Amino acid sequence: MAAINGNCNSISHCNVDRPFLLFSSNYSTSIRIPPNNTKSSSLSILFSPPPPCCFCSTTNKTRVITAFASMATTTSNVPVEELPPALDSTSEPPSIFDGTTRLYISYMCPYAQRVWITRNCKGLQEKIKLVPIDLPNRPDWYKEKVYPANKVPALEHNYEVIGESLDLIKYLDTNFEGPALLPNDPAKREFAEELLSYTSEFSSGVVGSIKGDTNIGAPFDYLEAALSKFSDGPFFLGEFSLVDIAYAPFVERYQPLVLDVKKYDITTGRPKLASWIEELNKIDGYTQTKRDPAELVASLKKRILGI
């Protein structure tokens, strides 16, 4: 089973199950990104168009949200982070490769949301700057100077650019300070890899059931069973972890979508899943990244069902 180790490429495309991409002179098979930001239009021919994605939207609104949660628990009275507007084709680039760590995202992309949540839960708001990209009207300099794959999320760190959402959440957890988001328990770490490997099958199962007549409940039954594995907390590994972060953006979208399209409540008969969603929504590092459910449903119905 392949994990949804994806990036959003456009309002209707993303990259799923592509290899980890690191652009650095330290790797013999990598592509050099010059620190002086010299344009290299020849890079565009190295990447073929990725498969369709149903998650991205044409809207990129600026929102004010709570931020600076220093750990993966409920917080209160925290400062707020005013999100910058998305950069489009008319925007000037930031001072790329100046030593600043930047996370390039789209506000509507669930893959980017994974990394955004991880950044927040690690307490890295001051250390990793958010740079939102307007995917349907993205600037040319993003592909030419930052990330030749031309997708989000991407992390600019130590004069390198790294992509792919599951790789990135692990990278942030390993290479930055803040609370660990994977436990030391070998059994839990093994189960974490199993659950991360199921993300693609989970998503394709839900989308397939929405488009056809397959069992809508099966993917959520899997989550319910997985949440019963450990009894020392309400999350997949008991404690909040990267596994919860990997699934959260997709459950956030699928819960209102299947209720709207199929009149199906994913929490009915699934007390563990209901509790997981409830506890997840107490974590500021996640809730500050959430979108309006109506906006998500409208976007997904258009992408999946053409309505």
TrEMBL record:
It comes from the Eukaryota. Residues 99-180 form the GST N-terminal domain. PROSITE patterns: GST_NTER. GO terms for molecular function: glutathione transferase activity. Pfam families: GST_C_2, GST_N_3. Gene3D superfamilies: 1.20.1050.10, Glutaredoxin. This is GST N-terminal domain-containing protein.
